[in-house]
Amino acid sequence: MGSVLDTLVLLNDTLVPGNFQPATGGDPDGVAYDSSTGDFYVANFGTNNVTVVNGSTDAIVQWLWAGSGSDAIAYDSATGNLYVANSFSDNVTVLDGATGATLGSVPVGTYPDALAYDAANGYVYVANAFTNNVTVINGQTEAIEGTVPVGSEPSAAAYDAANGYLYVADLASNNVTVIDGATDAVVGSVSVGSYPLGASYDASNGYIYVVNADSDNTTVIDGTTDAVVGSIPVGSGPDAVVWDGSNGFVYVVNTGANVSVIDGATDAVVGSIPVGQTSDAAAWGGSSVLVANGVSDNVSVINGTTNKVTASVSVGAFPLGEAYDDRNGYLYVANGDGQGVTAVNGASDALVGTMLPGAYPTQLAFDPANGYLYAVYAGAYSGTPPVGLVTVIDGATNTVVGTITAGPGTDAVAYDSANGYVYVACAVSGNVTVIDGATDSVVGSISVGAEPDAVAYDAENGGIYVANSGSATLSVINGTTDTVVGTVRVGSFPDAEVYDNANGYVYVANFNSDNVSVINGSSNAIVGWLTTGSGPDAMAYDSGNGEVYVTNLFSHNVTVISAVSDTVLGSISVGSGPGGAAYDASNGEVIVSNQLAGTLSIVEPGPVSYPVTFTEAGLPSGTEWSVDVSGGASFRSATNTLSFSEPNGGYLYSVTTLDTDYAAAGGSFTVQVDQVSVSVTFHLVTYSAEFTETGLPTGTVWWVNGTAIGSTSSTSSSISLTLPNATYSYSVATANKEYRSAGGSFVIDGSALSESVGFVPVTYPVAFSEVGLPSGTNWSVGIDGTTVFSTSTVISAQETNGSHSYTIGKVPGYEVNSSTGVVTVSGAPVSISLEFVSTSRGPSHSSAPSFLGLPSSEGYAVLAGAIAAVVLIGTVFGLRMRARRGAPPEPPSTAPQSTPPPGGS
Fold it and tell me: Which segments of the chain have a pLDDT < 70?
């Protein structure tokens, strides 16, 4: 399959062994400083990426992919994340500043053009130039908190840490909108100069400096009063400004290739520093100020102590297309950043020279019959050539020998060896211009599909295949009659194609579908689809080993396809944004041009390899997983299959996934002159959850139950489960119904868990109710040794099943009908009634009947005794009186007495 042998850095003609990553960009348009690492981040508008520059060494250390038209960048000091405003894709890319990983994308308004970070609330404010508002993003959640309407075409923003206000420069309405960061409400508007393009806050004096591009001055706003306190003339077309906290100076970036230095203490211009062309962004960090120069494709580093440029970091070079000249062995590279066409010696991999400086070619084709190169241009640019021109270069002398008017939007070119014609795809007009290579004159025009974007010649059938990116079709042209003889439906946005003269197949790279359509050149029928990396953008056919190389713009690698078996053999990591490829027949190398890195990766063919396909099961759909093969190779996929290729031999492998909730076992496989299939199964990673009970008698059966955990029992004091990460609810039960325990919830989060379960006896209420005591009397009940007091008529206790002794406490002056006893509880509440009776004699203590102050029976008994005593005393007294008179008493009569008749005497 091969690997990258060397990397040729186009900026400085340096050949570096292996897959070197200089990570450059083009048209830098935004700069931010990371105070935690000391690195600068440069947003490159033309190459849709971010260049990371070490602030200490001024060396490029990394590149980060962003969105389309990366126009501004801000650093969130709370999270360490970077926010990149992408003007053309109307969103903000969120990057991890520590790892460079893309964390997400937040849709905002139309043409986001400026960013500001509010350290007080952790919000990021995005100025949307074409929707005239500001999107508010929560830096912790990346959620949109709202939008704030501002003036016309907001193009700059600055945060005032002293008052918590955000100042938004509105380019078309010549004012600054003031937003309160606490409420996200507009609290004012300040008129400034013409065409305000930049704003910066000076923490030393509390001023906001707004640069006005059309009035060539800087408006000074007092952040305390939001009033204009000054206007400072600066250079021509100022469009960026930054405050240097180390020296108190304000640096105004002028598009006239210089920087005006303002002393923040006096608001006077104290110097001017020459920088690159079309400077339009700046940032301060440490002791340096970085100025992004859009046209120069570099960054000027200004020392804040000397106010001199101490370094210039190149972020240019944008190679788009290639062609190989088999007469001289040269590779010609079309550079889309204005560097014209670069010639590289295929034998030494060294730069030979540059043609068409200032031009923006996109594709090249070589005509072996005349030895000429044909360079085409996609659009209009300043200088030459204009739109629709094809430049003709003599490969023998490397000089321009002519220009041909082809049509608007010339975007691709191919040579037909059978008739000697050159076919130029014109994307704007939807046609193919036919040029006679013998006379370099236009001999025809063929209508094809929408936006033709690639052309390939089939030597087997003499057909020209035109990929139409706008209509997702392939137009087949008969090279003899120059007429369209067929149309083939392919994938989304076909962007490149090659012809394999060994099998007669045409391979079409579909940019938006991330695959390749395989077409039989004899029948013009699709015979297969092959999955590639992200954004397949260019192709080359290696006739030496029968392999097709597909460059993947977004995944920064090359997919290798076996044209013998029409299977994907694997992928090769190359530079950033590979967008062109060519095969060098003299040495068997494939040369890949890396747009974003400004390099050429020189791929050396490897031994014959065979497809290895891994198929996974168990992962949620869309989860990314990887296979690491012994020897250092690593392959990733977000589908359930993953394919690569390896030479004959035995291999060990391990399997991992970004979702740490899942794992799979590794193993081994052997390649032996055949394809290999390996199945792997992912399972949820589980952790121990141990429940320990207290309170149950030894040997009691108990359970832990839950919807997600099932039901598990034990007679010991513990129950162990193995569970994946999640939040669980559970209940607890026991076979001994005399005990109970409450359930609950727990969380498994990457480690073992211990959960305590306490059982307590089941109890029932026992209620003692009394009558007879006056209201409010304090009385008590003692049950099983525990005494409860109350002044109400009921005393309650909770008791377990069984018999329980009780004692009623003594109440002075009263007796109770049941002072002791045993209450039996059997699975239900129990009630006991008590009656108290007074033992006191005072009326106030009893409601029983009384006589003479005594209970009735006693009172009447006393009265009877008193009467008897009186009678006895009277009798004795009468006898004594008769004795004194001498009359003896008569004996009592013993004769029966009759009842006297009625009325007798």
Answer: 1-2, 7-16, 19-36, 40-41, 43-49, 55-56, 58-69, 276-300, 302, 304, 311-326, 331-340, 342-344, 346, 349-363, 377-388, 596, 605-609, 632, 841-866, 868-905
Where is 426: in which H helix or E strand? strand 421-426
Instruction: Count CB atoms within 10 A of the CB of residue 56.
Output: 10
Give which of 476, 362, 379, 482 is closest to 421, Cα–Cα: 482
**CB–CB of 196/214 below 8 Å?**
no
Eight-state DSSP code of residue 79: T
DSSP 471-486: TTEEEEEETTTTEEEE
Q: List the Cα angle 290/295/298 in 5-degree steps.
A: 35
Helix (H, G, I), strand (E, B) or coil at 902: coil
- Cα 74–80–81 angle (5° rounding)? 50
Q: How many CB atoms lie within 10 A of CB 199?
A: 28
Q: Is 858 exposed, middle or buried (0-12, 13-18, 19+ CB in 10 A)?
A: middle
The residues near 329 (Cβ < 8 Å, ≥ 6 apart) are 345, 346, 347, 584, 586
Q: Beta strand 676-681 with 610-617: parallel, antiparallel or unpaired?
A: parallel
The DSSP bridge pattern shows strands 389-394 and 649-657 to be unpaired
Helices (H), 684-724: none
Q: What is the dihedral of CA 234, 240, 245, 250, to 10 degrees?
A: 0
From CA 244, how far away is CA 285, in angstroms rounded? 8
Cis peptide bond prior to 900, omega within 30° of 0? no
Cα(365)–Cα(424) distance, integer angstroms: 10
Element spanning 655, H or E: strand 649-657
Length of the chain: 905
**Which residues in 119-267 belong to E strands, given as ranges?**
123-128, 133-138, 144-149, 154-160, 165-170, 175-180, 185-191, 196-202, 207-212, 217-222, 227-233, 238-244, 249-254, 258-263
Q: What is the pLDDT of residue 719?
A: 95
Strand partners, 684: 662
Instruction: Render pLDDT for 581-613 as a digit per residue (tens, 0 to 9).
Output: 888 777 778 888 877 677 788 887 666 667 889
**Alpha carbon distances (Å) from 877 to 162, 871, 903:** 126, 10, 33
Q: What is the pLDDT of residue 106?
A: 92
Structure tokens, 679:
């199945």
CA angle, corner 507, sides to 506 and 508, nearest 5? 120
Bridge pairing between strands 686-694 and 753-758: parallel
| Residue 56: both structure tokens together | 């200490």
| Burial annotation 810-840 (CB, 10 A radius, 16+ → b, else e) | ebebbebeeeeeebebeeeebebebebebee
Strands 764-771 and 830-838: parallel
Structure tokens at 179: 């937003």
Q: How far apart are CA 135 and CA 115, in angstroms?
A: 10
Residue 43 has φ and ψ, to the nearest 5°, of -85, 120
Tokens linked to 183: 């409420």
Three-class SS string for 484-539? EEEEEECCCCEEEEEEECCCCEEEEEECCCCEEEEEECCCCEEEEEEECCCCEEEE
At 340 the pLDDT is: 64
The closest alpha carbon to 655, from 683, 695, 674, 628, belongs to 628
Three-state DSSP at 876 gives helix
d(CA 325, CA 885): 187
Q: In three state form, how does the secondary structure of 562-590 look?
A: ECCCCEEEEEEECCCCEEEEEEECCCCEE
Is the Cβ–Cβ distance between 516 and 567 less than 8 Å? no
Tokens, residue 872: 């006895």
Residue 750, burial from CB neighbour count under 10 angstroms (0-12, 13-18, 19+): exposed
Residue 35 in contact with residue 634, Cβ under 8 Å?
no
How many CB atoms are located within 10 Å of the residue 159 CB? 23
- List helix spans (H) across 740-886: 856-885
